[in-house]
Design brief:
The chain is an alpha/beta fold and about 170 residues long. The protein contains 6 helices and 7 strands. Strands 1, 2, 3, 4, 5, 6 and 7 form a 7-stranded parallel β-sheet that branches. Bound molecules: zinc ion. Zinc ion (ZN) binds near residues 54, 56, 62, 69 and 70.
Length: about 170
């Protein structure tokens, strides 16, 4: 069985204290060890890892909604040091979905995965829209509830149920 693990936006801009869109200490302490462990397990099983990175131009219209973050070429754009050494394909994106304006479609068409596991942050934003676009393309998707996280815990729980009931994702708790 061919497996892909997509690790969404595990970047310094979201997981390092003091950054404008820092997810918070609780998320940081909770999710990083879980995702590192998952990445190790999936690599041992021969899965292809794909890391998405939020990557914006300085004048991105997204900054009308959010403070400027993860600008191309800055430290914030980098994968966190706990994961940066892992082998994998890097996909830089400028919208919530990792498919929008990227090569992800073509990459997955070549890999032809039987199962795609999605991990990372935030459950209710970039994870959600990437998962939805995977399901629109009929990929089998699974999510470990403790390998995704959000600064908004209520939204995290709601979106896990939404993924399960509406998008047909296998949510493992
Ligand atoms: Zn962004």
């Amino acid at each position: 069985m061919k497996e892909v693990l997509i690790i969404v936006d595990m970047q310094r801009g979201f997981l390092e204290p003091g950054r404008p869109l820092y997810c918070g200490d609780e998320v940081r302490e909770r999710v990083i060890p879980k995702v590192v462990d998952l990445a190790e397990r999936k690599l041992k099983k021969g899965a292809q890892l794909i890391f998405t990175q939020d990557s914006h131009e300085p004048e991105d219209p997204e900054f009308k909604m959010w403070p400027p973050h993860c600008i191309r070429g800055t430290e914030e754009e980098e994968i966190i040091p706990e994961l940066s050494g892992f082998p994998g394909i890097r996909v830089k994106k400028r919208r919530y979905s990792a498919f929008y304006g990227t090569d992800l479609d073509r990459i997955l068409e070549e890999l032809e995965p039987d199962l795609v596991t999605v991990a990372g942050v935030c459950t209710d934003i970039c994870v959600l829209y990437t998962v939805a676009d995977l399901r629109n393309r009929d990929y089998q998707v699974q999510v470990y509830a403790d390998c995704v996280d959000s600064f908004d815990r209520e939204a995290h729980e709601f979106m896990l149920r939404h993924m399960e009931k509406v998008l047909g994702v296998k949510v493992l708790r």
